[in-house]
Amino acid sequence: MLAGAAPGLASAAAKPAGLSDGEVRIGVLSDLSGIYADASGRGSLVAAQMAIDDFTAQAKPAFNVKLLSGDMQLKPDVGANIARTWFDRDGVDMIVDLPSSAVTLAVMNLAAEKNRVVIPTGPASLRITNEDCMPTTLHWAYDEYSQGQGTARAITEAGHKTWYFIEADYAGGKALRNGFEEALKAAGGRVVGGAKHPLGAADFSSQIVQAQASKAEVIGMANAAGDSANLVKQAAQFGVTPKQILAASLIHITDIHGLGLKATKGMYLTDGFYWDRNEETRAWSRRFFEKQKKMPTMVQVGTYSAVLHYLKGVNAAGTDEAKATVAAMKAMPVNDVFAKDGRIREDGRMVHDMYLFEVKKPEDSKYAWDYYTLRATIPADKAFRPLSQSSCKYVKPQKT
């Protein structure tokens, strides 16, 4: 674990009366060594510290902020043990990042028991804001529904109706496939088959051969990060494209960078952030790049946004007590480099605009990390599943 206090803050003598332990303690629980290390990992820690620094400079709060990090190794028991230690021994008030649905579900249950806040920015599962929702858990950057509403719907509406899925055999893979299936079927598509692979697979030859034999127009990749990158590489070796379209349910700009535009050109993807979208995103991303030497992913800038809004909530509430802080966060719009006029719903889902991008051809890229062309903006009320369809027990019945 790494730990450090934000510099230049007021002493404990000036702390608000409702603040525990004289400071706010935030834990970045991430994948520091596995397949999601590029998408979240140390980049999420960098982003969290940037949020603390920016909040401190702007709000000049009367409390200290301490940042810790841990590697949950994509294992629910490891993640839960770290969280329990943080809550019981280290007084951590909020945990963020969590690039695994299974780990998130384990940690958010523990957090509810301990009355602590959890803000997952890395997982996809709709369970987080539906049947397993908790009053102190807020789901940030994206989910399985948002990914399908962009990529799967766009490809199917373009006339490519038959799909075959290659799916990671764990909760996150199932969630991503579910999101894609819901969107493509609503657009008139159908699924003709699928194959699963273990998390962190090195060999996709069997799954690719089955996908080719299916004659499906589209191969949906219900996986993420390193798994998606390896699948794209091997699909190219097997000559999948241009005979079949590869559709990524979750692929990050760091994956595109590693694969290169020759292998990924023409790919459609849905993302909540692109560094080169406007002057504000460029300025923030260049600050991040100076520290990380890579442009930020949606998960990393989402972590920045979540930490910044959490600290604003603590400041507004005058306490780091979980329910009071969450109430203050829900009362404020989310306005930062990641989201404009975002809002946190009763079920804990933070809704904001999402974006459909097409990966550029190599000859169309004019400078480093110039990888995407914006094809559509998906407004917040369309990007995420309607609250009226939520099964979260904390949601009041919606008027029809």
Key structural traits:
ABC transporter substrate-binding protein, 14 strands, BCAA_transport, Rossmann fold, 400 residues, disordered N terminus, 2 domains
Describe this structure in words.
The chain contains 13 helices and 14 strands. By secondary structure, it is of the alpha/beta class. It has two domains: 2-142 and 277-348, Response regulator (Rossmann fold, 3-Layer(aba) Sandwich); 145-271 and 354-379, Response regulator (Rossmann fold). Strands 1-3-2-4-5 form a five-stranded mixed beta sheet, sandwiched between helices.
Describe the secondary-structure layout.
Blueprint: E1 2-5, E2 23-30, H1 41-59, E3 64-71, H2 76-88, E4 94-97, H3 101-114, E5 117-120, H4 144-157, E6 162-168, H5 171-186, E7 190-197, H6 205-214, E8 218-224, H7 225-237, E9 245-250, H8 253-259, H9 261-264, E10 268-271, H10 279-292, H11 298-317, H12 322-331, E11 343-344, E12 350-351, E13 354-359, E14 372-378, H13 380-383
Parallel strand pairs: 2-3, 2-4, 4-5, 6-7, 6-8, 8-9
Antiparallel strand pairs: 1-3, 10-13, 11-12, 13-14
Helix pairs in contact: 1-11, 2-3, 4-5, 7-8, 11-12
